[in-house]
Amino acid sequence: MKLPATLLLGFLLLTHGPLSAQTLEKIRLGYSGTGINNYVLDMGKRQGIFRKNGIEPEVVYINSGSLLSQGLISGTFDLSFSQGSEAMLAKLRGADVRIAAVVANRFNHVYLTAPSITSLKQLKGKKVAVSRFGSGSHFQTNLVFKEAGLDPERDVTVLQIGNSGARITAILSGVVDGTIMAADFVPRAKREGFNVLYDLAETKIEYPFLSLNFSGSYLDRNQRLVKALIKSMSESVRALQSDANMAKAVIRSALRTEDAETVDYALTRSIQVLDRRPFPTPAGIQTVIDELGKEAKSKNLKFEDYVDLRALRELEKEGFFK
């Protein structure tokens, strides 16, 4: 006997809920740093991109990449959205952490100094700021000083200050004479008379600047979720690079500013740095290996040991990045 259509519909609604409802799977995402990662996450949320792909990130901000890395290793987070050097350092020291995607394979930071400092070499004997030791800001600081012929362990005093907002406050107040800084703050810093002595984005150095880092066990168990997250991040990047009005709204909200110069500058940098095809590059991974030096070389780990490309390769095979 056939059930009447109204009874059948009622039965389906009672047993399965609304026919159009979609079960969203939660994923605990920790991030550090300010700027581009905020823009990608906020764009995905505003445009409904994460929900469309069946996931609902539980987003938590941590003010240091090294602390975030500890949270990932302990299982507090399913993934960290931060700099790849932090994941690689954890891997080097025995944790099974892998990079599943990199949405920016170039730096976005600059090195900022007080008005009286017009050369990086003048920082010898001075105080400089990073977020925390072992963080991405610390890694970039070491790289800048070595490029300038300074020894970051002997020639300067490195202070753990906090995120970019805290570091710009420290340099504006004279607590430090130099700091690595998210480029979003450049217009304000220049108006205050501070000097941008090194722009990492203008170098040809590849580096996993903004990566999705997971534990190996999570990747092994949750490839479908990882794939959905990477897809969402890539779509958010596309939206940032193609919808200027929405992108500016996202940036204004993230930076809490109405300054048009700052917003335009931050958007230009984002378009310049972000990758729609978020594959980590061998050259970027090698940059970190070289900077970590003897510790990395003694373990003899290679590109394949630091990354897990399964989800990316599936998406590419499906034609998602075309």
**CATH fold-level topology of the largest domain:** D-Maltodextrin-Binding Protein, domain 2
The total domain count is 2
Main sheet? 5 strands, mixed
CATH-scheme architecture of the largest domain: 3-Layer(aba) Sandwich
Shape: globular
Major sheet strand order: 2-1-3-10-4
Description of the structure:
With 322 residues, this protein is an alpha/beta fold. It has two domains: 23-106 and 207-317, D-Maltodextrin-Binding Protein, domain 2, CATH 3.40.190.10; 109-202, Periplasmic binding protein-like II (D-Maltodextrin-Binding Protein, domain 2). It is 48% helix and 17% strand. The protein is built from 16 helices and ten strands. It has helices at 5-16, 36-46, 49-52, 65-74, 84-92, 136-147, 164-172, 186-191, 216-221, 223-242, 244-255, 260-273, 282-292, 294-299, 303-306, 310-317, and strands at residues 25-31, 55-61, 79-82, 97-104, 109-113, 127-130, 157-160, 178-182, 195-199, 210-215. Strands 2-1-3-10-4 form a five-stranded mixed β-sheet, sandwiched between helices. A five-stranded mixed β-sheet has the order 7-6-8-5-9, sandwiched between helices. Helix 2 (36-46) crosses helix 11 and helix 11 (244-255) packs across helix 12. The termini are far apart. Residues 1-20 have low confidence and may be disordered.
Concise summary:
The chain has 322 residues and is of the alpha/beta class. It has two domains: 23-106 and 207-317, D-Maltodextrin-Binding Protein, domain 2, CATH 3.40.190.10; 109-202, Periplasmic binding protein-like II (D-Maltodextrin-Binding Protein, domain 2). The protein is 48% helix and 17% strand.
